[in-house]
Design brief:
heterodimer; A: mainly alpha; Serine Threonine Protein Phosphatase 5, Tetratricopeptide repeat; elongated; B: mainly alpha; 16 helices; 0% strand; globular
Chain lengths: 242, 357
């Protein structure tokens, strides 16, 4: 194109209008973009690309409602690119929104039905929401499909919570065949035995659990392996029954 | 004896030529051929840094801006600086921008209904774009080196380049086939799931075996083989999609794909501008001007544009990710037109002034 005048004379009016409108919209949106960045951050947009930045900002500012809105879109709509599940789950836990946590993990299971991780997280969320039987059923699917770390321990604790002592003991014993050095599994087994009235065997398991926990602590590892223990600490009455 | 050795050397050179370079053997093989990516991947893999960690966020962000974002902008800059582009492609140059803006706005307004599909389209199209670039570059070096391909040979090279795309299309659980075939269907049809696994395994093997078969076929038929840089380009694309995806380190492929693209498009732009009768600048000036504009436009597109939607009340995730999808799709469409080698003046640049290797 030799000049603007040439371009105007050679181009069909419809294309010209489309181009000029597009250019105007794009230019205007860039100005708004700079303005928007200054409004959010007080600086021009950073070259570091983080679609979760605004959600994290709300999260750390304590505005959990806005944080949840941002992170929810990222986790559920754009999960192919970003995973804000951990942050969003934390928001729901801090706001004690257990139903939302269940819904989050249900959506993740629907998106990744072959993955054990979201199903395991759903099982824990269901237990957290006092939906014990559904939690057990979900964790059982994980247990039967893959050797997922922590699933036996979580299931044993869940069976104990439901007062299904035989199944708690069986699952804990099965877990110990896979991971005989798990302090958590020995402890769950001890609780099951204790509730069934086998005090001697329970005592031996408690001692073994304590010994393994001490050894792990001395080695710098978390004595309570697997994510289940951490989550189940928050389960109401999960330990009270013992 | 000398005559025999000489004829063997000639035959070897004909079967596996180094190829005629655009700039020099080291530059073309490292930047355009993808050799630098293989070296980097090997070093990062050996040192345990293949998957970028949180500490690398800022340097990776800058690297992505300078190479990845700039490469997306490069197709647009190339389109609008190409002599005769407005006349040749009025819809592409003047209509598509408005369509892109409308698509982005719709995606941001309807993230669950439309935005996620736009994003899945971009992710599905991306491996095809990489494969098409590998095919285009491989052929470009072959033609430039004096080689020709008949229809069957061209198809063989094309489908060899497409293998990583086909593998990703079939194997990826969320894009390609995974986008169209709901997980619920696979859950109730385990035989279908098994078939997908088997086909993707075969494609994985073929990605690295097919180039050998095609090379052997050319050799047996006494044809001039593709230059080594063409095979390097094809092989590198396979490594990017099959190895880096596995290690969740695909970000490196985007960086080196960007470098590859920027190198070739800048060479084309500079050669074209220097060849214009009205030119008054050196090639270096055109290279710096073109790259500078690409970096600035890349920054405006990827970093500034999404904030317009944040300003208007949208969430940042949908604004940033939908704009990335739209910019990518626009880039794929534009590329489809501006790299039609045999039908436009690009071909003159491909075959002109070859530098002996």
């Amino acid at each position: 194109m030799a000049s603007l005048a040439d371009w105007r004379s050679e181009t069909r009016p419809l294309y010209r209008v489309l181009f000029e409108v597009g250019l105007l919209l794009f230019g205007g949106s860039l100005l708004l973009g700079f303005w928007g960045s200054f409004r959010v951050w007080g600086t021009p947009p950073s070259p570091v690309f983080d679609p979760l930045a605004l959600g994290k900002k709300f999260y750390f500012a304590g505005d959990l409602e806005k944080a949840a809105r941002e992170l929810r879109t990222a986790s559920l709509v754009y999960y192919l690119a970003v995973d804000a599940t951990a942050e969003l789950a934390d928001v729901y836990q801090r706001t004690n929104d257990r139903d939302a946590l269940v819904q989050l993990h249900e959506a993740r299971v629907a998106m990744r039905p072959f993955d054990a991780e979201p199903r395991f997280a759903l099982g824990l969320a269901l237990l957290n929401a006092n939906r014990t039987e559904e939690g057990i059923a979900t964790l059982e699917i994980v247990r039967r499909s893959v050797p997922y770390p922590g699933v036996h321990e979580a299931l044993a604790a869940a069976y104990l919570q439901a007062d299904r002592l035989g199944e708690a003991e069986a699952v804990a014993r099965e877990g110990l065949t896979v991971d005989p050095l798990s302090a958590g599994l020995h402890q769950e087994l001890a609780f099951a035995l204790q509730k069934r009235g086998d005090a001697g065997a329970a005592e031996r398991e408690f001692q073994r659990a304590a010994q393994l926990a001490n050894e792990s602590a001395a080695a710098g590892a978390d004595p309570m392996r697997g994510p289940a223990r951490e989550t189940l600490r928050d389960v109401p009455d999960a330990r009270v029954a013992r | 004896m000398n005559a025999v050795a000489e004829s063997v050397a000639l035959a070897r050179q004909r079967a596996f030529p180094v190829g005629r370079m655009f700039l020099s053997v080291p530059f073309d093989y490292l930047a355009i051929g993808g050799g630098l990516s293989l070296v980097t991947i090997a070093v990062l893999g050996w040192s345990g840094h293949l998957r970028p960690s949180g500490d690398m966020r800022v340097p990776m962000g800058i690297l992505l801006l300078l190479l990845n974002s700039a490469h997306f902008a490069a197709s647009t800059v190339r389109l609008y600086t190409k002599p005769g582009a407005f006349r040749l492609w009025p819809w592409l140059t003047m209509g598509l921008p408005l369509v892109a803006i409308a698509g982005l706005t719709a995606g941001v307004l309807l993230p669950e209904q439309f935005g996620r599909h736009l994003f899945a389209l971009y992710l599905t199209w991306s491996p095809f774009h990489y494969a098409a670039q590998a095919y285009g570059l491989a052929c470009m070096y072959h033609y430039r080196s004096g080689g020709i391909l008949d229809t069957v040979e061209r198809r063989l090279v094309y489908w060899t380049c497409m293998l990583p795309f086909l593998h990703t299309f079939i194997a990826d659980p969320t894009t390609g086939l995974g986008w169209f075939l709901p997980h619920a269907v696979l859950v109730v049809h385990p035989s279908l799931q098994l078939l997908i696994l088997q086909v993707s395994f075969v494609l994985e093997i073929l990605t690295f075996v097919a180039p050998l078969i095609v090379a052997a076929r050319l050799l047996v038929r006494g044809r001039q083989g593709l230059p080594l840089i063409s095979w390097l380009i094809i092989f590198t694309n396979g490594i990017w999609w099959l190895t880096l995806n596995f290690f969740q380190a695909f970000v490196w492929a985007t960086v080196f794909h960007g470098l590859q693209y920027l190198a070739i498009v800048t060479i084309f732009h500079a050669k074209e501008q220097v060849g214009l009768p009205t030119n008054r600048h050196s090639p270096q000036y055109h290279v710096l001007w073109f790259y500078g504009v690409c970096v600035v436009l890349g920054y405006l597109l990827f970093q500034v544009w999404p904030y317009a939607y944040v300003f208007a009340g949208s969430g940042m995730a949908e604004a940033v990710l939908t704009s990335a999808a739209v910019i990518n799709i626009h880039h794929f469409v534009v590329d489809h037109y501006i790299w039609r080698l045999r039908k436009d003046p690009n071909y003159a640049i491909v075959v002109s002034a070859p530098r002996p290797a």
